[in-house]
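Example 5.3 — HIT family protein
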Amino acid sequence: MAYDFELDPRLDNDSLFLTDWPLCRVLRMNDRAYPWLILVPRRTGKREIIDLSTADQGLLLEEIGRASRAIKTALKPEKLNVAALGNVVAQLHVHVVGRFADDPAWPRPIWGVQAPQPFDSDEAEVEVIQWRERLA
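Solution (predicted structure tokens):
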């Protein structure tokens, strides 16, 4: 089934493209402070998880699990944070973030603690390659 899909420009500008899974576009937040993936269901006009079909809700949960396992296996975080806020970017997207006791925001939420620390172009290239391998 084909869907018209357009990524919100804010998500596009703030992230690195990793891959497309059956439901979601998988992005790496361009912030070296946290291992932070963003899953964006490729469905137009969806703001809430409950706006997805029942089948897509199940697929989203599977893909959240897949992203979570990739972070957990590769980096062994102390906690995984999974959130679908959408207060700033209305397009439905889910954050999957590995948290560590020595990260800049621990134990608070990551939002608003510090400005993002983007990768330089060489680091971004390496980051994308590593995450694509972890997610394969």
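Remark. The mean pLDDT is 95.
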